[in-house]
């Protein structure tokens, strides 16, 4: 990134949402709240929508580092029923908390929140097969997806083919597991998914 943008020293970085980075490192207004159009329409299988909130510094959040040698990949899906727009966000970090890659992708023709969450898991595991050299923990705040990926039997829901695709990517890794994370501790992936949906954009950044 430094080849293209003038960035502050890494030790001075404080995560306040992807818009801060895209603005070229300008100091954000930490007192304001970020809310994206359609955020109130974000469905989550009966779990309720998630309102815009203050950006969170990951060093002060409840995110926990994986075991030594493991990579933790946090994923999130965003879907607005009112507009049909959707996006996914992914961030991968090692056991030292160092970012390996981040990604956000706009989804087209997405049928709902569950599909968005499933596609976030697929993309996270797909990128892991390319850029993570070792065992992987896939972390999501969607209980439905965590349960489906952990299940030993074949999924028979409307998104069964997406569950199967995610498992297929996982099977190519040396080892992988799935864990549930609280929504407030999945803030980076959440913000990236919102960015993708709001701006209809797609990108992958490698550390």
What's the structural blueprint in terms of helices and strands?
Elements: H1 18-22, E1 71-79, E2 86-93, E3 99-107, H2 113-131, E4 136-140, H3 143-150, H4 160-171, E5 176-180, H5 187-199, E6 203-206
Parallel strand pairs: 1-4, 4-5
Antiparallel strand pairs: 1-2, 2-3, 3-6
Helix pairs in contact: 2-4
Briefly characterize the structure.
The chain is an alpha/beta fold and 207 residues long.
Report the major sheet: 6 strands, mixed
Distance between the termini: 8 Å
Extended strand count: 6
CATH superfamily: Ribonuclease H-like superfamily/Ribonuclease H
| Secondary-structure content class | alpha/beta
User: CATH class, anyone?
Assistant: Alpha Beta
The number of helical elements comes to 5
Helicity level? 25-40%
- Gyration radius, rounded: 16 Å
Q: In terms of per-residue confidence, which ranges show pLDDT below 50 for 5 or more consecutive residues?
A: 11-16, 18-58
**CATH architectural name:** 2-Layer Sandwich
Order of helical and strand elements: HEEEHEHHEHE
Total of domains: 1
Residue-averaged pLDDT: 80
Beta-strand content bin: 15-25%
What is the general shape? Answer: globular
Strands in their spatial order, largest beta sheet: 5-4-1-2-3-6
CATH topological fold name: Nucleotidyltransferase, domain 5
